[in-house]
Amino acid sequence: MRLASAPSSAIDAAAWTVAADELVETVRELIRIRSVNPPAPGALDGELVAARRIAAMLTEAGLEPEIVEPEPGRGSVHARLRGDGTGGDALLLLSHLDVVPAPPERWSHDPFAADLADGYIYGRGAVDMKAMVAMELGVVRLLAAEARAAGFDPAHDPIPGLRRDVLFTCTADEEAGGLAGAKWVAEHRPEWLRAAGALNECGGVSVTVAGRRLYPIQVAEKGFAAYRIAIRGTWGHGSMPREDNAAVLAAAVIARLAVQGPTRITPVMARFLDLAAASLPSEAGQILDALAGDDPARAEAALAAACDPMYARALRALLRDTVSPDVVHAGVKYNVIPGDAVVEVDCRVLPGTTEPAMRAMLVERLGPELAAVCEIELMVYGAPVEAPADGPLYDLLVATIRDHDPDGIPLPVMAPFATDAKHTSTVGTPTYGFSPLQLDPDERFLERFHGVDERVGIDALRWGLPVLYDVVRRFCS
Ligand SMILES: [Zn+2]
């Protein structure tokens, strides 16, 4: 069943239709700009082109956007809508304009053509995250249009009815850690990110489980710690095999590290499991109860038996610190025993796990003999982040979802991956994954991220725009 959004008071039905059509066209236009990260050498249509196009749209709306370009071609764009200043700190609409590469071979549509088919827009960035860029732009355009209609200048005058400022910030380089994007902005333009709260990608998207629509709102995300493990063996002649062949040692290292670690339920995930269990039919509820319990074997059995593998993978990752060995190098020639090997591992840590604790876990899993031939070097680290799963903004996100989908079940969740929330947290802005979309029950949303045939539903977008608008209006009024 497709539920109509409750119309938001300030805008009539005809205006919503126009805004939704414009939203669809904006998503398509942004997908066609190949803002791929890492940028192809000499590419002319990268992030800066996308930033300039967004700036042009903001200028058309009567605003005065600003672009920064910390490295050639790596543009981020920002605009501010003013409130009358009586309502407290701003609300930040945060997004990123880069996308991961999309080798076209297995796509059924050109990843940069933004084809319309079966009620969907296809293309790289459709869900990660040009749909949300366009929804945030859509809200900004509606607010600016209301100011113009009332005879005000949206670039300088307060927007009628707004008591807080609304910040729009769309950054480059999120897909590679934000060094040329949100991290740079946090250090050099912190006023672009500093706010009472931020709305960002990933959460607020419906997930249909056992016939019920859950809306996980992202309030936390795991941290990451990537390590390079240098393994010392002995060089030799391939005709006389050795136990200390570094490739053989690397295989043992990988086998030990690839084993799943013990579960630890963080407070956010405990609340997620409780709320989901209470809302779902008893069978699904029992699975979630098993997950929240302290019997790992029972939890794993429940996951494996009953859960869609896509959700099972995500839940497993959210209930423990994870280790994924993703790079292995050894050997120079078939008849030379390699004396050196390198394994790189991607570790994702729960809130409460420090980097030294993660490293200690690796050493423990290797065991003393293997650890003695391994040198573990930290390559990159980002701490976990959490925003309050209560308080005015979180409560408003929950209430607004319920207003637009009375059968919906909003609940807090953690993301297994990192977003620009890592950088907004450095300027003290609590950041929520909230890019509202009401999906078809069968849509495999999580697999669209960085996947083949990435797409976003047109009805899902039409539902989301008024939800996002209402959140902004209500929080800032
Ligand atoms: Zn993203």
Search tags:
single chain; 477 residues; alpha+beta; 38% helix; globular; disordered N terminus; binds zinc ion
Low-confidence stretches: 1-7
Indicate the overall shape. globular
Residue-averaged pLDDT: 93
| Annotation, overall tally of beta strands | 19
Task: Describe the protein's architecture and organization.
With 477 residues, this protein is an alpha+beta fold. Helix content is 38%, strand content 22%. The protein has 14 helices and 19 strands. A hairpin with a 2-residue loop joins strand 4 (116-117) and strand 5 (120-122). Helix 3 (126-149) packs across helix 14 and helix 11 (392-404) packs across helix 14 (458-476). The longest helix has 24 residues, at 126-149. The protein is globular. The two termini are 32 Å apart. Zinc ion binds next to helix 3.
SSE diagram, text form:
Blueprint: H1 13-32, H2 47-60, E1 66-71, E2 74-81, E3 91-96, E4 116-117, E5 120-122, H3 126-149, E6 166-171, H4 182-188, E7 197-200, E8 207-209, E9 212-221, E10 223-232, E11 236-237, H5 246-257, H6 267-279, H7 282-292, H8 296-306, H9 309-318, E12 322-330, E13 336-337, E14 340-349, H10 355-372, E15 374-382, E16 385-386, H11 392-404, E17 409-415, H12 421-424, E18 431-433, H13 445-448, E19 455-457, H14 458-476
Parallel strand pairs: 3-6, 3-7, 7-18, 9-17
Antiparallel strand pairs: 1-2, 2-6, 4-5, 5-19, 8-9, 9-16, 10-14, 10-15, 11-13, 12-14
Helix pairs in contact: 1-3, 1-14, 3-14, 5-10, 6-7, 7-8, 11-14
This protein binds zinc ion.
